[in-house]
Design brief:
Number of strands: 4
Structural class: mainly alpha
Shape: extended
Number of helices: 7
Number of domains: 3
Oligomer: single chain
Strand order of the largest sheet: 1-2
Mean pLDDT: 86
Strand content: 5-15%
Helix content: 55-70%
Distance between the termini: 48 Å
Length: 153
Amino acid sequence: MKAEKKFLEKLANQNSGILLVDDVIEAAKDKSCVLHHHFEWDDTEAAKSFRREQARSLIRRCKITLVEHPSAEIRVFTSLPSDRETGGGYRLTSTVLNNEQMRMELIHDIELTITRWRTKLYLLDAKTAEILLDLENSIQSQTKSLQDNQHVA
């Protein structure tokens, strides 16, 4: 990815530091471009791929309101990392929350997301990043408690 990164930086610098998606695609059309192999150039396959992404977007937009917390909406469907590794797919969030193994996988995925956010936040605001660290530690503590209770039962 070093060559791709360098090429993308060059494209951004040619446009006052702004990297535009259309510029990336246009440059990648050249078969000799280092980016070319990252794209699907068969229009039929690209259209299928785009429709799949549209379906993912539609699935992510389906929300339900929690009775216990009327101000909180959650997604009806959840994508677990193990499913993404084996071809993708979405599960009903209620099913995931009611299955201890899937629930723990979801919690672990949330922890990883918080870690990524915290890492990015340190670039901008260390105080907020520290708040996320506290949240991350709280979730890890609750997760450990859940796991300990499972081993006792």
